[in-house]
């Protein structure tokens, strides 16, 4: 249950990120935080980004993590690493059909990629999502569906994909 709730939190956070970028939220989380979210200067930045630049930023925030997810899935299928319940005989707490494809964790990848993508828009939200991503990773291990190495690899790959997406989005939004 906790696993599902956290997963849906990330789906919502990713959707919200894309909507805010579409609405013209400035993609410089640090500068926006310094200028003050509620003051006139901070509000004036909203919508100042041209539509084409917003669409390009949204494409970067969608394509880069999506392509990385596809690559990660291909590597994972090729490696076909066994899961803890297959090798160690533990009963998984999260119902799981099938076997193998444990390394790296796509749940951890997705959670850390989404959290990292938020860094350009709002570092405070990014930090909160990173805490939730860590919780999700720990839950996947305790649930018996991943080894620690699986979630660590997924987290590192997801963070890298998210930060690459942010870098490209900021570059395209200028």
- Please give the count of helices: 8
**Cα separation of the termini:** 41 Å
Which series of helices and strands comes N to C? Answer: HHHHHHHH
> If you average the pLDDT, what whole number results?
85
Please indicate the percent range of residues in DSSP E strands (runs of 2 or more): under 5%
Structural class comes to mainly alpha
Helix content percent band = over 70%
What would the principal axes of the Cα set say about the shape?
A: elongated
Question: Could you name the ranges where pLDDT drops below 50 across 5 or more consecutive residues?
Answer: 30-44
- E-strand count: 0
Roughly how many Å is the radius of gyration?
A: 18 Å
Main sheet characteristics: none
Structure description:
There is one protein chain. With 174 residues, this protein is mainly α. It is 71% helix and 0% strand. α4 (51-79) runs antiparallel to α6, α4 packs antiparallel against α8 (148-173) and α6 (106-117) packs parallel to α8 (148-173). The longest helix has 29 residues, at 51-79. It is elongated. The termini are far apart.
Quick description:
Helix content is 71%, strand content 0%. With 174 residues, it is an all-alpha fold.
Topology (elements, then pairings):
Blueprint: H1 2-22, H2 29-35, H3 40-44, H4 51-79, H5 84-87, H6 106-117, H7 123-142, H8 148-173
Helix pairs in contact: 1-6, 1-7, 4-6, 4-8, 6-7, 6-8, 7-8
Task: Label this structure with key terms.
8 helices, 174 residues, mainly alpha, elongated
């Amino acid at each position: 249950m906790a696993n599902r709730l956290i997963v849906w939190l990330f789906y919502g956070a990713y959707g919200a990120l894309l909507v805010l970028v579409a609405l013209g939220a400035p993609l410089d989380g640090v500068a926006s935080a310094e200028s003050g979210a509620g003051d006139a200067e901070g509000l004036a930045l909203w919508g100042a980004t041209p539509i084409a630049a917003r669409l390009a930023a949204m494409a970067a925030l969608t394509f880069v993590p999506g392509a990385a997810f596809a690559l990660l899935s291909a590597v994972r299928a090729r490696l076909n690493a066994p899961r803890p319940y297959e090798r160690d005989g533990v009963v998984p707490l999260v119902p799981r059909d099938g076997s193998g494809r444990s390394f790296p964790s796509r749940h951890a990848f997705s959670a850390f990629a989404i959290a990292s993508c938020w860094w350009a828009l709002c570092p405070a939200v990014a930090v909160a999502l990173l805490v939730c991503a860590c919780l999700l990773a720990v839950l996947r291990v305790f649930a018996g569906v991943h080894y620690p190495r699986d979630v660590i690899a997924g987290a590192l790959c997801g963070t890298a994909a998210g930060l690459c997406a942010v870098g490209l989005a900021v570059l395209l939004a200028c």
